C-alpha cells in the first residue's frame, strides 16, 4: 500500500520504505515506484489524492533502482532479474532493455546523460554508452 502524501513532495525525493523504491520527477507532482513484484508505476500526487497513472510490467524480479532523466521524459530501472529497462514515461512504454547475468542493484544516468552506470551482485561497476534522445 502506498503512503498518503498530504503536502507537495520535496525534490529530489529518494526513499526506500517497505520494499518500495520511490524517485520523484522534477515537477513535484509525480513519482515513480518499483517494488517486489517487478512493476514500475507512475503516480500523480495531489494535496488530497494519489492516482496511479500507469503500471508497466516488464521486470520479472524486484526493482532495486529507478533513475529519471533531467528532461522527465525517460527513466531507467534496474531489477534483480538481470535487466535494466529504459522507459518512456510520457507514453508509458519500454524503449530499451539490457540484460546481464547479475542481480542489478543500482542504475544511474551519467550527469551528461549519454551513459548509464550500473552495479550488481557481481560487484562490478559498468559504464554503458548509448545515444538516445
Structure description:
The chain is globular. It has strands at residues 14-17, 20-24, 30-34, 39-45, 50-57, 63-68, 74-79, 83-88, 93-99, 104-109, 115-120, 125-129. Helix content is 0%, strand content 53%. It has 133 residues and is mainly beta. A hairpin with a 4-residue loop joins strand 11 and strand 12 (125-129). It has a single domain (14-129), classed as YVTN repeat-like/Quinoprotein amine dehydrogenase (Methylamine Dehydrogenase, Chain H). The termini are far apart. The chain contains no helices and 12 strands. A 5-stranded antiparallel β-sheet has the order 1-2-3-4-5, with no helix packed on it.
- Distance between termini? 34 Å
Fraction of residues in H or I helices: under 10%
Examine the coordinates and then state which fold CATH places here, giving the name of the CATH topology: Methylamine Dehydrogenase, Chain H
Kindly state the mean pLDDT as a whole number? 76
- Placed side by side, the strands forming the largest sheet appear as 1-2-3-4-5
Counting helices, strands and paired strands, the structural category is mainly beta
Number of helices: 0
User: What would CATH call the architecture?
Assistant: 7 Propeller
Low-confidence stretches: 1-21
Per CATH, the class reads Mainly Beta
Assembly state here? single chain
What would you give as the CATH superfamily? YVTN repeat-like/Quinoprotein amine dehydrogenase
Shape: globular
Amino acid at each position: 500500500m502506498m503512503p498518503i502524501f498530504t503536502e507537495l513532495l520535496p525534490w529530489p525525493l529518494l526513499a526506500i520504505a517497505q520494499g518500495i523504491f520511490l524517485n520523484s520527477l522534477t515537477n513535484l507532482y509525480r513519482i515513480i515506484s518499483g517494488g517486489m513484484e517487478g512493476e514500475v508505476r507512475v503516480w500523480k500526487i495531489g494535496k488530497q489524492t494519489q492516482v496511479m497513472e500507469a503500471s508497466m510490467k516488464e521486470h520479472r524480479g524486484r526493482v532495486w533502482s529507478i533513475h529519471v532523466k533531467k528532461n522527465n521524459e525517460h527513466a531507467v530501472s534496474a531489477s534483480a532479474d538481470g535487466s535494466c529497462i529504459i522507459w518512456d514515461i510520457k507514453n508509458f512504454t519500454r524503449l530499451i532493455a539490457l540484460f546481464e547475468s547479475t542481480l542489478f542493484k543500482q542504475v544511474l544516468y551519467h550527469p551528461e546523460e549519454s551513459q548509464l552506470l550500473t552495479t550488481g551482485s557481481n560487484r562490478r561497476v559498468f559504464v554503458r554508452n548509448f545515444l538516445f534522445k
